[in-house]
Amino acid sequence: MRELTYYVASTLDGFIAAPDGSFDAFAPDPQFLQYMAAEFPETLPVHARGPLGIAEVPNKHFDTVVMGRKTYDPAVEAGLTSAYPHLRQYVFSRTLGHVDDASVTVVAGNPVDTVRELKKENGLGIWLCGGGELAGQLAPEIDRLIVKVNPVVIGSGTPLFTHDYQPRSWSLVDATPQAGGVAVLQYER
Predict the structure, then answer these.
(1) Residue 113: inside a domain, yes or no?
(2) pLDDT of 131
(3) How many distinct structural domains can be found in the chain?
(4) pTM for the full model?
(5) When you count CB atoms within 10 A of the terminal residue's CB, does the N or C end of the chain come out lower?
(6) Is residue 169 in some structural domain?
(7) Is there a domain that residue 35 lies in?
(8) Domain contains 129
(9) Lowest-pLDDT range, 20-24, 37-41, 53-57?
(10) Sorting pLDDT into bands at 50, 70 and 90, what band is 74?
């Protein structure tokens, strides 16, 4: 059975985006980008893979990515129907409709049902790219949490998880400090 991993950048105060949805507070150090390219190459979008020298590097951890529409929209605004053509992509939206790209599937139904079906398939893991609302809906299905904690506090924005009060315990399995003050924290359920 495949695992669902929520792999995401966060501020020290637990936000994954600014109030307007932007990611300007996350300015990765070039050395940290090299770490990401080596350890999680498939999580870098297509327009970054060439400049980082990983355009042809095979996926290490994931072959599928799931995301909400707010996470998908910035790629569309940049002219990309698929930011991750090297992955099977599922975008959860009740309003998006069809996307003219074979690597992108729009799902209007229940994300939990879809993820449960994806977990039954053979292959690499499933990456939950974002956002906080989708993470809140999928919280019971998340097997691993990898948070790239950035050394910045923004005060408000999109929280790491958006859901009702439901404490869930995690076990820290790795903590790796990176250049620029980022700490990569890995947790298992």
Answers:
(1) yes
(2) 84
(3) 1
(4) 0.94
(5) N
(6) yes
(7) no
(8) yes
(9) 20-24
(10) confident
